[in-house]
Amino acid sequence: MINDLLLVGSLLFIFGGALFAYNFFGKAGLYAVTVIATITANIEALIMIRAFGMEQTLGNVFFAVTFLVTDILSETEGKKEANKAVWIGVFTSVFFICMTQSWMLYTPSESDWVMPSITAVFSNTPRMMISSLVVYAISQLIDVQLYHLWWRFTEKHFGDKRRFLWVRNNGSTLISQILNTALFTIFAFWGTYEIGTLFSIMISSYVIYIVTSLCDTPFVYFARLIKERKDKRLATTAH
């Protein structure tokens, strides 16, 4: 029960944090969230928990916020800025892999006590991070493409650019998350867990992503409202 509550609390805190960052720092705030999420999710993904009756990695929520970020940017700032967030995440992963692996090249002093723990965590990180890097880039770029495909589709058929945000938000994320979940589970955990556990991770991860995708829709609406209010203030000031 405690894990369930902590997971829900984490979801609200992280999604709320992304909205807070956008409100006060604009798109730069969302780029910062991308960096934080990319690093944190790949460490958390090493931790297995049981919540809501399913075995899952702890990194699911932080991975989910990266899709919220690109959806907000797609909706409010455009496709170019959304793709930029993806490439910032890729750069962060590469940089983080290089730095964490360099730590283990050092010879610790006699008084050191933390290196065994660092080695235990980050010796698994290269595979995790490389898997995440490849899957993240593929699934996120597809998500951005799908978001704008859905947008063009609804605008063409209903003649309204503003309506059906929930369709493009969920339609893009739920499809791209199938690919994200399957590829990451196979690349990151193949040989580490038994087949049954892999399927459990895959199914639970996708269920979590379905829930987080549905939960993040109001945050995209709020982000668009923030953008419109800022634009209105700027227009008023200009006059």
Are there runs of 5+ residues with pLDDT below 50, and where?
none
Protein structure class: mainly alpha
Radius of gyration: 19 Å
Oligomer: single chain
Terminal Cα span: 55 Å
Strand content: under 5%
Query: How many H/I helical runs?
Result: 8
Form type:
globular
What summary fits the major beta sheet?
2 strands, antiparallel
- Biggest sheet, strands in spatial order? 1-2
Helix percent reads: over 70%
Provide the residue-averaged pLDDT: 87
Number of E strands? 2
The succession of helices and strands, N to C, reads: HHEEHHHHHH
Mind explaining what this structure looks like?
- With 239 residues, this protein is mainly α.
- Helices cover 82% and strands 3% of the residues.
- It contains eight helices and two strands.
- A two-stranded antiparallel ribbon has the order 1-2.
- A hairpin with a 2-residue loop joins strand 1 and strand 2.
- Helix 1 (2-25) packs parallel to helix 3 (60-76), helix 3 runs parallel beside helix 6 and helix 4 (79-103) runs antiparallel to helix 6 (125-158).
- The longest helix is centred in the C-terminal third of the chain and has 44 residues, at 195-238.
- The chain is globular.
- It starts with a helix and ends with a helix.
- The model has no long low-confidence stretch (mean pLDDT 87).
